[in-house]
């Protein structure tokens, strides 16, 4: 399993998450309900697991739990990560321990990933960020150790994505990630089907994020025991995970 998974560790091994550090709650925004989970990248171990390029077996939360158990860790939180191909390989950027495992995708195309601006969620040196793809390419940030790319951006520097319509009839379950003003990472997933515009205003107006990235829609899934959620049948190409350490 380890050969087929890319482990992206945010914190040093001496910094561990515990069940108490998982802060998940259910909130309402406009007429819809969302589960929101918040983590401090300076204190907690955030990782992204992805399958290798090409056709491969999909990931499940059970598979991630088994992988973590090999290192005496357990899964505190899990969510599907950035978009992937039918064979489960990543569509866009994947960086592991400072090494680029899949390049930044700046192409044009069809589908949500290419609804530009799209963006990158990155972690490193005790911090995390969300940045629009072209800005990320220009910035050439030296501290980035781990990154994953998805799209579209939901919020860019406090502005809603210009293609989102307040009266859109395109409704899906959606999940995404944003950065709070204090640097914490906030993940959100809708309980029901919502439009892009409403989901973006959740991050900007209710959560207070100036930058937020859409992760996926129809395959959105969550592992959050704190709110009794375990989408154990989900099959994914990438999983964002928060890990804790098992007692000896």
TrEMBL record:
InterPro entries noted in UniProt: NAGPA (IPR018711)
Signal sequence residues: 1-22
Entry superkingdom: Bacteria
Domain Phosphodiester glycosidase: 75-227
Keywords: Signal
Name this protein carries in UniProt: Uncharacterized protein YigE
Organism: Rhizobium subbaraonis
